[in-house]
Write a sequence for this structure.
């Protein structure tokens, strides 16, 4: 979710913010909006939602280590007097072949398994000083692959000969740069099986040169048409400034803070007799030099992506290209289809029934099904918005709100549960303890630099405690005479791994962005301070075993706050356009009903004009 600013009733300026994972995610901090003294303008509320990334991981150190290792690899090449791997005469080559960008991401892989239930093997690194990255990236990859079928994730060193034959496709994530002080942990069997087999192989990031060295550089180049041993992360001595990726006719963004960029490997594509054609599936642009290169390339059974695109991500980011490339490996016959989805957010007993009916009338007239995210109990334990007098109101105590919800359900809405109280006790978590403003299942605070810092699950967190909150919420819906919600959205999208599993067991699906904690794949205790945040362009079965519906283009936000710009209908429409690159994707956003109707109309009209068809959250 994204930050929302609302001019509330009773003359109170109440700003609802969606604090989601900010792209930098350094030192465990998330950029927050201004937190002012009581009685002033605030920016609390729903999770920010524009970005996803890593929490408490030193990506600057990782980037520096990767570039240092790649520079050393480059230098070693020049020290050699002969190149035994190229003992045979090689055709002439160019640093960048003129193969055209494939607008349709090239033809589907002929070798892809067309099984009704595709299976993916995800292999990841665990060694070296940044070995913790591997599991985080593997979870993100496994979640996406969970859209297609079953997924098995293993550390790459556990690969054994022939393992690839049991799966439709294999995905390797090269997050540890092997070389120097970090010995290669990739078994020779994987190198050989990936090269000799026909199953689709998607390789992201580092160590592709290790495969070339293992099977023989000449054999590799003759099969794949490019040379990883002469491909580097730097162009002219610098990583440059790769700011965009073009894929399937869409221009996708790539925004990396200074000093954090580990670079994108630029494939040295070979030309001449004897080398097969290499398809540049996605085109990277280095804006510092104007150079373009294959951000993702394919030949034979190998699809190579020059980076791991899971950090510094936005709704229009280059990760969209990877999300679509999975179709080629796991569901190549998928037909083009573009659906859209909208939900109305942070509805509570404190909501204005007139505003709710206005939204319902518009969406019904437009034949748009939608979700309504309802918090069944509104509480302001410190009287922050009630002149210092504590206040708690249930749905049953607001019959006019319940009547408006019933009205909405009769006009295409799907009831969704958005927590129990959407706040925690009577403390600032991190703002004021008021429903809709604060976290419910996770602790957070605001630091001196005005960043929201994720501190970990609440003290009493457990599966039993989370279940008690869900049970209490559902009882409130029943007491109000409303049906039981079948969909859930976690307040501020933040909970522990145990919490997410409870929500998945109680509801048919979660509609949200999520946190995925280190230790989930390895079976060790989840690390509450190390996680990756992610959102999806299609429904997935995630590593918690739960179904998650997409929310991938954010929400309307009319005012800038802190480091976050305003997000207007044109911005949501632009993100929906970027997501057209996903051949069977969903453009999913949310809107707060206390905003005027016109921005919602503008957003819906713009998304429809792109060719999207609105569907109900219950239809996914």
């Amino acid at each position: 979710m994204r930050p929302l600013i609302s001019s509330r009733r009773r003359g109170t300026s109440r700003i609802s913010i969606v604090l989601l994972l900010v792209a930098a995610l350094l030192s465990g901090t998330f950029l927050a909006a201004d937190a002012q003294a009581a009685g002033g303008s605030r920016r609390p509320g729903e999770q920010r939602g524009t970005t996803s990334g890593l929490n408490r991981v030193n990506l600057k150190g990782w980037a520096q280590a990767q570039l240092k290792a790649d520079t050393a690899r480059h230098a070693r090449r020049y020290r050699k007097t002969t190149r035994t791997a190229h003992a045979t005469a090689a055709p002439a080559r160019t640093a960048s072949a003129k193969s055209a960008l494939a607008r349709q991401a090239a033809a589907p892989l002929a070798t892809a398994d067309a099984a009704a239930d595709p299976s993916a093997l995800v292999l990841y690194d665990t060694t070296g000083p940044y070995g913790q990255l591997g599991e985080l990236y593997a979870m993100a990859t496994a979640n996406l692959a969970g859209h297609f079928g079953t997924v098995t994730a293993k550390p790459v060193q556990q690969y054994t000969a022939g393992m690839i034959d049991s799966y439709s496709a294999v995905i390797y994530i090269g997050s540890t740069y092997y070389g120097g002080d970090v010995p290669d942990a990739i078994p020779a069997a994987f190198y050989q099986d990936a090269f000799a087999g026909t199953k689709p192989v998607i390789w992201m990031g580092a160590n592709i040169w290790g495969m070339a060295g293992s099977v023989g550089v000449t054999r590799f180049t003759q099969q794949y048409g490019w040379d990883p041993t002469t491909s580097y992360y730097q162009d002219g001595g610098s990583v440059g400034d790769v700011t965009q990726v073009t894929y399937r006719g869409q221009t996708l963004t790539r925004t990396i803070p200074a000093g954090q960029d580990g670079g994108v490997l630029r494939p040295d594509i070979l030309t001449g007799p004897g080398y097969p054609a290499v398809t540049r599936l996605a085109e990277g642009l280095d804006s510092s030099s104007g150079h373009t290169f294959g951000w993702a390339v394919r030949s034979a059974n190998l699809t190579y992506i020059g980076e791991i695109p899971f950090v510094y991500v936005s709704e229009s980011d280059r990760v969209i290209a990877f999300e679509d490339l999975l179709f080629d490996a796991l569901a190549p016959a998928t037909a083009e289809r573009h659906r859209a989805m909208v939900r109305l957010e942070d509805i509570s007993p404190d909501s204005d029934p007139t505003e709710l009916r206005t939204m319902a009338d518009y969406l019904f007239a437009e034949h748009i099904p939608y979700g309504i995210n309802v918090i069944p109990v509104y509480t302001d334990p410190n009287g922050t918005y009630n002149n210092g007098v504590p206040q708690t109101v249930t749905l049953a105590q607001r019959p006019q709100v319940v009547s408006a919800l019933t009205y909405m359900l009769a006009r295409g809405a799907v009831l969704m549960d958005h927590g129990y109280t959407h706040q925690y006790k009577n403390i600032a978590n991190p703002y004021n303890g008021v429903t809709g403003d604060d976290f419910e299942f996770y602790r957070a605070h605001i630091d001196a630099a005005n960043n929201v810092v994720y501190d970990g699950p609440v003290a009493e967190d457990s599966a039993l405690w989370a279940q008690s909150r869900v049970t209490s919420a559902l009882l409130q819906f029943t007491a109000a005479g409303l049906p039981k919600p079948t969909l859930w959205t976690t307040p501020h999208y933040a909970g522990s791994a145990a919490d997410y599993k409870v929500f998945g067991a109680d509801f048919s699906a979660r509609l949200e962005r999520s946190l995925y904690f280190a230790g989930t794949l390895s079976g060790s205790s989840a690390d509450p301070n190390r996680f990756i945040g992610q959102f999806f362009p299609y429904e997935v079965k995630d590593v918690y075993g739960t179904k998650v519906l997409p929310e991938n283009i954010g929400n309307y936000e009319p005012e800038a706050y802190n480091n976050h710009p305003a997000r207007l209908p044109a911005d949501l429409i632009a993100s929906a356009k970027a997501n057209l690159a996903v051949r069977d994707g969903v453009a999913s956003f949310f809107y707060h009903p206390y905003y005027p109707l016109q921005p919602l109309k503008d957003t819906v009209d713009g998304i429809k004009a792109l060719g999207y068809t609105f569907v109900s959250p219950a239809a996914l």
